Amino acid sequence: MNENFFENVYEVVKLIPEGRVTSYGAIGEYLGSKRSARMVGWAMAASHTLPDVPAHRVVNAKGLLTGKTHFTTPTEMATLLKNEGVNVVDEKIVDFEKHFWNPMLELM
DNA sequence: ACACTGACCACTG
DNA sequence: CCAGTGGCCAGTG
Question: Which residue's CA is nearest to the C1' of nucleotide C11?
Fold first, then answer.
């Protein structure tokens, strides 16, 4: 296992508490590259094979469930979030700021 | 080696 | 508010 961007992404995502969410940009920023948010999402797509990675807790900067298309079913992501107490309306997280979990503040 | 793509983000007009 | 542009890194054809 090489220690690379992917590993770090997985580590952070695994640490996201239940009922909390974060964004690709936040993770990328925590890893040192704010502009590498694309890669984070891309890493997620590759990591969705790992059961310990709650990908449904990772959304884009606007709180939109952009990654839902990569789930087994498009509704899976919203269902999981709602199941954890995160209200989702029209593929968007309600009170995104309240549920937002900043890795830089929690893991520093 | 080159070009294109991607679960993105922020800025500018 | 919406549209367009640049930037970031890695993988694939």
Answer: A42
Count the neighbouring beta carbons within 10 Å of the beta carbon of residue A23. Answer: 23
Q: Rounded to an integer, what distance in angstroms lies between the CA atom of residue A82 and that of residue A86?
A: 5
HEC per residue, A40-57: HHHHHHHHCCCCCCCHHH
User: From residue A84, how far is each of A2, A9, A54, A62 by CA, in Å?
Assistant: 32, 21, 11, 19
Measure, in angstroms, how far nucleotide C9 C1' is from residue A91 CA: 28
CB distance A54 to A13 below 8 Å: yes
Q: What is this structure's pTM?
A: 0.91
Chain B: bases < 7 Å from a protein Cβ: 6-10
pLDDT reported for residue A50 = 84
